[in-house]
What we know:
Number of helices: 11
Shape: globular
Order of helices and strands: HHHHHEEHEEEEHEHEHEHEHEEE
Helix content: 25-40%
Largest sheet: 10 strands, mixed
Enzyme class: hydrolase
Number of domains: 1
CATH class: Alpha Beta
GO molecular function: alpha-galactosidase activity
Catalytic activity: Hydrolysis of terminal, non-reducing alpha-D-galactose residues in alpha-D-galactosides, including galactose oligosaccharides, galactomannans and galactolipids
EC number: 3.2.1.22
Radius of gyration: 22 Å
Protein name: alpha-galactosidase
CATH superfamily: Aldolase class I
Bound molecules: 2-acetamido-2-deoxy-beta-D-glucopyranose
Number of strands: 13
CATH topology: TIM Barrel
Structural class: alpha/beta
Amino acid sequence: xxxxxxxxxxxxxxxxxxxxxxxxxxxxxxxxxxxxxxxxxxxxxxxxxxxxxxxxxxxxxxxxxxxxxxxxxxxxxxxxxxxxxxxxxxxxxxxxxxxxxxxxxxxxxxxxxxxxxxxxxxxxxxxxxxxxxxxxxxxxxxxxxxxxxxxxxxxxxxxxxxxxxxxxxxxxxxxxxxxxxxxxxxxxxxxxxxxxxxxxxxxxxxxxxxxxxxxxxxxxxxxxxxxxxxxxxxxxxxxxxxxxxxxxxxxxxxxxxxxxxxxxxxxxxxxxxxxxxxxxxxxxxxxxxxxxxxxxxxxxxxxxxxxxxxxxxxxxxxxxxxxxxxxxxxxxxxxxx
Length: 337
Ligand SMILES: *[C@@H]1O[C@H](CO)[C@@H](O)[C@H](O)[C@H]1NC(C)=O
Ligand SMILES: *[C@@H]1O[C@H](CO)[C@@H](O)[C@H](O)[C@H]1NC(C)=O
Ligand SMILES: *[C@@H]1O[C@H](CO)[C@@H](O)[C@H](O)[C@H]1NC(C)=O
Ligand SMILES: *[C@@H]1O[C@H](CO)[C@@H](O)[C@H](O)[C@H]1NC(C)=O
């Protein structure tokens, strides 16, 4: 139910790429100026050498040391690279407690924490599935049962494309208490892992001056709370802080890295033996063409870096329909509780 924020191309670029582009632009501008004979003094061109832009500017991903959870607990379950999965957030699964099969027959289901019952999660376990429970950790959603516990001071700007949702202050003790209660609920319902969404407010107009450091601090808090219950945690998107927060997460949940040509940012998960649960939203879903599979399931061009990712092709609504990279399609039944 949460989705890709609809940002401009520039806003989506990783910090390192922005610095490189700025440096290239600076070289071009200075080159033109020199070529046109505009009087650049010797001191001026030495003092602002364009090549110094990328090397001297701090990068959040390389100057911050890796974060560690403050819990020595180990997650009871950690997913493997190349695991198969399905994600359905629009509606709860329609899964009778006497069900003996579920479609598709993948090993992991990522479903909404609030709308799915404990019975549904118990039934998934009986069917030998693991369950990742989704909730929005960094945005306010007015329709959630605990929505009245947020204060107005907790809430920032409206999410672009999601008029009902507001960015949350990740440093707020109240917000953190509410998220700890949600993680407790995940444990009570029997979830194996959590998928906390919208932890990358720093990449957006959030109205709260959120920084990458705020996200790193918040993710450290979330992972510690998850480990208190021996739950695994995924990192949702947030490609530019991967090097810092990789130790906090047991997997990645990524939206549209091929579409934005940024799969390389998530490849360190695979190197660390942690899966990347990768979603793309082809515009012609559910009637995909061979060219969609070639584009989103390849490992070169815009898909460079995605080797070993667990890719699903979905509609933006994240309903029960899914297509896998082998061209197999399935529709999970929804509408139960
Ligand atoms: C979590 O795992 C630790 C061992 O890593 C164990 O001692 C503890 O009882 C477990 N806690 C829960 C809540 O299952
Ligand atoms: C709201 O917060 C109170 C106080 O912490 C808590 O008792 C209550 O369960 C919360 N409400 C919901 C719906 O989670
Ligand atoms: C939030 O906490 C982080 C880490 O403790 C800190 O670096 C940052 O300055 C805080 N931000 C705000 C807005 O209070
Ligand atoms: C995952 O799948 C890819 C592509 O088939 C393969 O190259 C890789 O070795 C697999 N990795 C693991 C850990 O199974």
